[in-house]
Amino acid sequence: MNHHILTDTEMVDMMRKAGLRPSAQRLAVLRYVGNSHSHPDSDEIYNEILHGFPSLSRSTVYNSLHALVEAGLVRELEIDAGNRHYDLAPQPPHAHFICRGCGTIFDMPLPDGFAPVDMQGFEIDSVDVYGKGLCPACTASPTDTKLNTNIKNTTE
User: In the chain, what are the domains?
Assistant: First the structure.
């Protein structure tokens, strides 16, 4: 999938429109989630933005992620059991694929015309579609490297 790199001005506008105060830390978290396209977890986000905020705490990252999720700017992905990953929310609908070999999470297009079933009386606030298997690199690699438990998150 082709990704647009968001400017700080665009991200500040997004936060303001969502009713969220654009603090420097929130902006850094949104910038990393929105522009890395790697579906990072909170540890990756913390480690990547720490250099810009030497006194940054993990709690600040968790609180920023929570606020961004509540504001509808970031989505939590629960594709990797026991580990939440994050993706920019305001983008075209798409699914995700996680490789069981290397742990990489990829964006995956949805089939044309995909829509959740209308269920009378239910309020659906989220539909998540995930694929799991092996990516081309792991399919082509020797068997002993498959099903690696080290998780790495990138997109093509």
Answer: 8-88 (1.10.10.10), 95-145 (3.30.1490)
